[in-house]
C-alpha cells in the first residue's frame, strides 16, 4: 500500500513537472501566429480606439499581427461569450471593460458567463475617468450650484447617461445619493445623441467618459463640473474631482485584457510583461492620456487578479447602496 501510494505521488509529481515544462516551452514559442482580441464595443467606440492603439504597438513587439474583432451587443454579453468559448491556447483574448467583468454580475439575474471562473486576468490597461457636465442653459458655475439646483427641484433635473444600470448611470446615482437628491435618468445608446440633447437643452446634465466629452468641454459647448478620478486629470486640470467635495469618492471605469480560463499561465505572464513594456513607452502613455485613459505602467498578473477581487467587493457595496435590482 505504501509502495503504491509512493508510486502514485511520484507519477503525479512527474506529470506536474512535465506540464510545467510544456507550459514554459509553449510560452517560449509563443506567439507563432496572429493573435485575436475580442471586443464587446462597436468600431469607433472609445474602448475600440484604445484597444486598436495598444494592439498595434504590442504587435510590433511580438512580431505578429493582433486582429481586433468587434462583437457588440447585449450589454457586453455577446462579446464575452465569444471570448469565453474560444480556445484557451494563447491566441484569443478578451479586451474588456468594467461593465463586462464586474458590474454585469450585479445587474443581470442570470448572466450567461462567469467573469471570475470563465476568464483569467492578464493585465489592466488603463483607468477611464468619467465627467459630470452641464449644458449651456445651466446658469451655475460649479458642482455646488448643480447640487443646489437639483435639491430645489427634487427628481426634476434630467441627466443623460447610458442607462440607470450602466456604469455611467450608476455613477450618476452614486453621486446623487451622496449629495442627497435624485436624478431623472434619460438613457442613450449613443454618446453623440446624448451630447447634442444636452447642448440643445433637452437634458440638464450628462455623465459620460471624459474621452466622449473632452472636445465639447474644450470648445465651451458644455461645462465640466467634476471628474470621477481620485486626482484631477491631465486633460482637465482645472476641473475638480468629486472627491474634493465628497472625500474618498473615486469611480473610474477601466479596460483590461483577459484570456479564456485554462490559458497557460506562462503565456499570461509573458503577455503581461510585453504589455508593461508597451505601456511604459512615453509616446504610448501620452496618446492614452489624450484618449482619456490613465495607463497602468506596472501591474503583474497576480496584482491584476487582486485588483479584480477588490473591484467585485467594492461594486457589491455600490450596487447595494443605490438599490440596483438585477433583471
How would you describe the overall organization of this protein?
It is built from eleven helices and ten strands. By secondary structure, the protein is of the alpha/beta class. Strands 1, 2, 3, 4, 5, 6, 7, 8, 9 and 10 form a ten-stranded mixed beta sheet that branches. α2 (46-62) crosses α9 (265-279) and α4 runs parallel beside α11 (301-322). The longest helix has 28 residues, at 2-29. The chain is globular and about 65 Å long.
Count of alpha and pi helical runs: 11
Distance between the termini: 55 Å
What is the percentage of strand-forming residues?
15-25%
Sheet having the most strands? 10 strands, mixed
- List low-pLDDT spans: none
How many strand elements? 10
H/E element sequence: HEHEHEHEHEHEHEHEEHHEH
Helix content: 40-55%
Please tell me what the overall shape is. Answer: globular
| Radius of gyration, in angstroms, nearest whole number | 22 Å
Helix- and strand-based class? alpha/beta
Average pLDDT rating: 90
Amino acid at each position: 500500500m505504501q509502495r503504491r501510494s509512493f508510486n502514485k505521488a511520484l507519477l503525479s509529481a512527474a506529470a506536474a513537472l512535465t506540464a510545467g515544462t510544456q507550459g514554459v516551452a509553449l510560452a517560449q514559442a509563443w506567439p507563432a501566429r496572429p493573435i485575436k482580441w475580442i471586443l464587446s464595443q462597436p468600431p469607433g467606440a472609445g474602448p475600440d480606439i484604445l484597444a486598436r492603439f495598444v494592439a498595434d504597438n504590442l504587435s510590433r513587439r511580438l512580431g505578429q499581427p493582433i486582429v481586433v474583432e468587434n462583437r457588440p451587443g447585449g450589454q457586453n454579453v455577446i462579446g464575452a461569450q465569444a471570448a469565453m468559448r474560444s480556445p484557451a491556447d494563447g491566441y484569443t483574448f478578451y479586451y474588456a471593460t468594467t461593465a463586462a467583468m464586474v458590474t454585469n454580475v450585479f445587474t443581470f439575474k442570470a448572466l450567461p458567463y462567469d467573469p471570475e471562473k470563465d476568464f483569467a486576468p492578464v493585465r489592466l490597461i488603463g483607468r477611464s475617468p468619467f465627467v459630470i457636465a452641464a449644458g449651456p442653459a445651466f446658469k451655475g458655475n460649479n458642482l455646488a450650484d448643480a447640487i443646489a439646483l437639483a435639491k430645489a427641484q427634487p427628481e426634476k433635473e434630467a441627466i443623460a447617461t447610458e442607462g440607470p444600470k450602466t456604469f455611467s448611470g450608476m455613477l450618476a446615482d452614486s453621486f446623487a445619493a451622496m449629495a442627497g437628491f435624485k436624478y431623472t435618468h434619460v438613457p442613450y445608446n449613443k454618446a453623440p445623441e446624448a451630447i447634442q440633447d444636452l447642448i440643445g437643452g433637452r437634458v440638464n446634465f450628462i455623465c459620460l467618459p471624459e474621452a466622449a466629452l473632452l472636445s465639447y468641454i474644450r470648445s465651451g459647448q458644455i461645462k465640466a463640473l467634476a471628474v470621477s478620478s481620485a486626482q484631477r486629470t491631465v486633460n482637465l486640470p482645472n476641473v475638480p474631482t468629486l472627491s474634493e467635495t465628497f472625500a474618498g469618492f473615486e469611480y473610474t471605469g477601466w479596460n483590461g485584457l483577459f484570456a479564456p480560463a485554462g490559458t497557460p499561465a506562462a503565456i499570461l505572464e509573458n503577455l503581461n510583461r510585453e504589455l508593461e513594456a508597451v505601456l511604459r513607452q512615453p509616446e504610448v502613455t501620452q496618446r492614452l492620456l489624450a484618449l482619456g485613459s490613465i495607463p497602468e505602467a506596472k501591474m503583474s498578473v497576480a496584482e491584476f487578479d487582486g485588483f479584480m477581487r477588490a473591484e467585485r467587493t467594492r461594486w457589491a457595496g455600490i450596487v447595494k447602496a443605490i438599490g440596483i435590482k438585477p433583471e
